[in-house]
Amino acid sequence: MLRLILLFVLYISTQISFAKEVAVTIQFKNKTDIAFQKGFLIIEETQQKIAFTNTATRQVLLPQKGRYKLDFVSKGFFASINAPKLLKNKSITTITLLDSNSSIPFVTNTYGHELTPTVIEEQLAKGTLNFIIHTILPTDNKRQAAFKKNVGIGFIFKNCAIDPISFANAQKHNAALANYLLDKYGNDWLKALPVTPTGISIKKDGL
């Protein structure tokens, strides 16, 4: 009888353990003409390094639903990862492969088109123009509000973990805004800037 009870408890424990696991779908988009040979999906929290020898869609098991930092490395490729913030059962993660030997493409910006001076002025009139900031550092909301009131440009804050494409997009977007402000105000606006936009280097005497 005792043996049956122990077996039953072991069975229940095993089922609970398996129930916590979540199966996440990994799919690939190879945007290059390079044949994929091998790569590794690295999951920081679980210290997993999962090998992929092709780009066929497959599932990866995680111990439980939660937030995970994912990275993918493969010789000859940049990898851009699009994953939900909270990974749970049946979540889909897309890994886009780009040629590491070519310039990083600027896929899009916040507004879906090039930020020419005309477009910038149109967005300023609507009050929807923002610098893109990738940071976890604390920020001064009062200075942000004052900057937007004086210059017309606000701030969008995003995750500090940033892939090459997102960085390139943010850099191009922010550079367009910075160049517009330089032409209009010189370096004066830099003194009121509450936080440095992603991809922009600011020196003591200006950009």
Main attributes?
alpha/beta, Immunoglobulin-like, 2 domains, 4-stranded mixed β-sheet, 3-stranded antiparallel β-sheet, 4 helices, elongated
Characterization of this structure:
This protein is α/β, with parallel strands linked by helices. The chain folds into two domains: 22-99, Sandwich (Immunoglobulin-like), CATH 2.60.40; 117-192, no CATH class. The chain contains four helices and nine strands. It has helices spanning 2-20, 117-126, 141-151, 164-185, and strands at residues 22-30, 39-43, 48-52, 58-62, 70-73, 77-82, 92-99, 130-134, 154-158. Strand 2 (39-43) and strand 3 (48-52) form a beta hairpin. The radius of gyration is 23 Å and the shape is elongated. Residues 11-18 and 103-112 have low confidence and may be disordered.
DSSP helical segment count: 4
The average pLDDT is: 79
CATH topology of the largest domain: Immunoglobulin-like
The SSE order reads HEEEEEEEHEHEH
Structural class: alpha/beta
Q: What percent strand? A: 25-35%
Class of the largest domain in CATH?
Mainly Beta
Number of spatially distinct domains: 2
- CA-CA gap between termini: 79 Å
Q: C-alpha Rg, in Å?
A: 23 Å
CATH architecture of the largest domain: Sandwich
| Biggest sheet: strand arrangement | 4-1-7-6
Low-confidence stretches: 11-18, 103-112
Percent in helix: 25-40%
Sheet with the most strands?
Answer: 4 strands, mixed
